[in-house]
């Protein structure tokens, strides 16, 4: 099966931060999971460069917009590398491959009468790159609850896109496809919004020149949202590219809740007007908030250097934190204390400790050789049943774009494995000559539990499989998703190593003194 997943394309008006990173890490976990399932995956991310705010920021930095974005785009690519993001493509909207598709689509929509020329008179919020009618403003400012900033009065000749014409078609599509907008709270929000009536959308600007020119009227540049959304097909080589034929429609567009409106309304209507199939799922997740409850964003000045964080805790730990902490349909709180707490409890204590403890026992009692197991007892049967249950639940959660839920399930298995160590007490078995076979069974089961943990966590923490496979004396072929609920895969006689702890405990008080 094919699986096409995208993140939003980010504005390179400032460097990415840990909040921005959430979406990309979540998309990466889903892409990696689908690769493990054997799907043909295409994972796209990129940057949205033709915005007015880019011009403003470049001016403030006394530089040319293109020079400015070229610099920031490198920071995005660096961060994605540091976080082990496995995207197959990275699109920049200043690239020719994108610009020519936007121009082609704009012309087609104009020629078929879905875009028409008129005059825009109203308000514009540059931080949100959004047009607002006067009656929507809140005390004369941007009505977006996360923004509330000054808006500017615009009165200019503009092209408009007939959103209103497609309102009923969109509403019936959404009602007929309950899975289209997820989670359900976002879907309800969108239905209410559309039912309140769609106005035609202003889709060109004349007061600045940075952007994609309307080919038949070059004093206009294409409105940044119309331009940006098209990236999802321009990157595939629409209309004739092989990738377009292979991967469209997208299986999931994942994004923050702030921009679901654009993806659930403008984007499907563009596609309907072009007679192109609609994406299967638009998934809007919550935000990472700082401890004071405000959204993490550059303009609020609460952004920490993501590279320093990754260096301090490691990419896997940061990825784990981001994916685990934000529950479906809600916001998550980010703070460094929370990162350390999760790292110490979930990764060092529960996960890492099971692996070190159990490998140490195989080394101590069997000189590092995975022994040949005897008959399963009740405890082993229980673990086996649990692994099947957990794998099924993880498949379900990931199918619903819920990495936090999937990790919660996996940690049920991790907790059970830790309990199994205490219940079987291998140190006591080792003292009894007649328990030799029982000890072999327990130690073998430990090794199998480690193998299963390595498979289940592979989509989330891609640095782990290689490390764990080395500890188990195997190569990465051991990581086979369909074997996460099969037992008896490891051969006895293979030599394991105790190795260094995968996640050393962090002492926060020492860290603060550094
Ligand atoms: O909106 N918590 O770009 P943008 C979680 N260019 N996610 C966050 C976040 C936070 N604190 N801060 C940012 C744009 N994000 C447009 C998109 S797509 C055709 C065009 C993530 O740079 C989240 O995914 O403002 C949010 O939707 C996105 O960054 C906004 O990125």
From TrEMBL:
Q: Name one GO molecular function term.
A: metal ion binding
Q: Does the keyword Ion transport apply?
A: no
Instruction: Name the residues that bind Zn(2+).
Output: 125, 128, 142, 147
List localization entries.
Cytoplasm
Q: What reaction does this enzyme carry out catalytically?
A: tRNA(Met) + L-methionine + ATP = L-methionyl-tRNA(Met) + AMP + diphosphate
Q: What is its main location?
A: cytoplasm
Example GO biological process term?
Answer: methionyl-tRNA aminoacylation
Q: Where is this motif: 'KMSKS' region?
A: 295-299
Q: Which GO terms describe its cellular component?
A: cytoplasm
Q: How is the cofactor bound?
A: Binds 1 zinc ion per subunit.
UniProt entry tagged with the keyword Glycosyltransferase: no
> EC number(s) for this protein?
6.1.1.10
Keywords attached to this entry: Aminoacyl-tRNA synthetase, ATP-binding, Cytoplasm, Ligase, Metal-binding, Nucleotide-binding, Protein biosynthesis, RNA-binding, tRNA-binding, Zinc
Required cofactor(s): Zn(2+)
What is the annotated quaternary arrangement, including any partners? Answer: Homodimer.
The record's comment on protein family reads: Belongs to the class-I aminoacyl-tRNA synthetase family. MetG type 2A subfamily.
Which purpose does this protein serve, as stated in its record?
Answer: Is required not only for elongation of protein synthesis but also for the initiation of all mRNA translation through initiator tRNA(fMet) aminoacylation.
Q: What name is this protein filed under?
A: Methionine--tRNA ligase
Organism expressing this protein natively: Desulfosporosinus youngiae DSM 17734
Task: Print the organism lineage.
Answer: Bacteria, Bacillati, Bacillota, Clostridia, Eubacteriales
